[in-house]
Amino acid sequence: MNSSTLTYNSILKLYASNDVNFRGRIFSDSKNLYRSEYQRDRDRVIHTSSFRRLKHKTQVFIYHEGDHFRTRLTHSLEVSQISRSIARYLGLNEDLCEVLSLAHDLGHTPFGHAGENVLSECMNNYGSFDHNIQSLRILTLLENPYDDFLGLNLSINTIDGLLKHNGPIQDKKLVLELLPDLNSYKINFGNHGSLESQISSLADDIAYNNHDIDDGLRANFFSIDELKEIPILQNIISETLEKNSAKNNYKLIRKLIDYMVTDLTENTKKNIHKYNINKIEDIYNAKLSIADFTEDTKKLIANIKLFLHEKMYKHKYILKWTNKSEEVIKFLFNYYLKNYNLLENKTNKLFTKERNICDFIAGMTDKYAIDQYNNLNK
Fold first, then answer.
1. What is the arithmetic mean of pLDDT over 81-94?
2. Which of 86, 87, 116, 337 has the lowest tally of Cβ within 10 angstroms?
3. C-beta neighbour count of 375 within 10 angstroms
4. Which residues, at least 6 apart from 180, have a Cβ–Cβ distance to it below 8 Å?
5. What's the pLDDT at 81?
6. C-alpha closest to that of 207 among 253, 173, 160, 162
7. In the 3-class helix/strand/coil scheme, how is 312-343 assigned residue by residue?
8. Which pLDDT tens digit goes with each residue over 345-366?
């Protein structure tokens, strides 16, 4: 262990993920003199082709609709920034927060949630599809830069944190069907993820709600005056914005992110003391998530989601692409079922035909899926 790693670990809280509670990797790996274990995990994720493809995967708007709308890549970077900021204040492991944030959406299909829904429908009789589990399939099975094993050989701590992105696992059978090698990680499915995992998950909520507001305002799907209908947000708008300012959108999003980050940070800090959290096992074994918003902010976020659902996700322009994306993915899935030989160099004998097709389509960018559809649908 190098001196910089020792210094870094000395500033982490005892309930943070550090070298003492590092759970190792499935395949033995020599230590690195210059990087911590979680830095190595982060770097392995960043250098994957799956991560690069996020730049052409939909957040809400299809990749070619505008240069300033979010993509899955920019969203992941924004989640990383938020989670690192919170981690630093709470004395958590920033590097682990970063890799969890950057990797959490690797499993998303082309065309965002619309693509996920239709691919899940296609896989109803073949084992289902879930983008969170797909992220782990990519990291443990599908990315293959090494000669001796499948996947990236990420740390067990990182895999555990990604698996529990939404809390303890409710359907262990489904997870093990899609991730057959996960038993070797000896993960306790019933307990919570690390505090870094919990913070990264909530940073995801902060990022996509606020940046969907920003993108919706940019697309003129709704106005700031309409946002004033949301309790609490009305007060933030009144306190923040200047009349007829050209920078009101930026000011609002900046203020709203700050509001949510502050709320999450301060409330999590209170919970750490309230529930007497002294070591990482206290986080794992707690009866509830320690990282959390206050009740008022939970209501605010719920109201924002409802507003965005009505004003943005159900907007006729978005629905047009939703319908088109369903058509594209259904066509591709059925086409490859009938012409499986075309995937000869893109399949794995460990998996069924349908799962290989699902993995292939899930990994596509919006552009590649549209191009394939146009080329094959003649």
1. 97
2. 337
3. 8
4. none
5. 97
6. 253
7. HHCCHHHHHHHHHHHHHHHHHHHHHHHCHHHH
8. 777 888 999 999 999 999 999 9
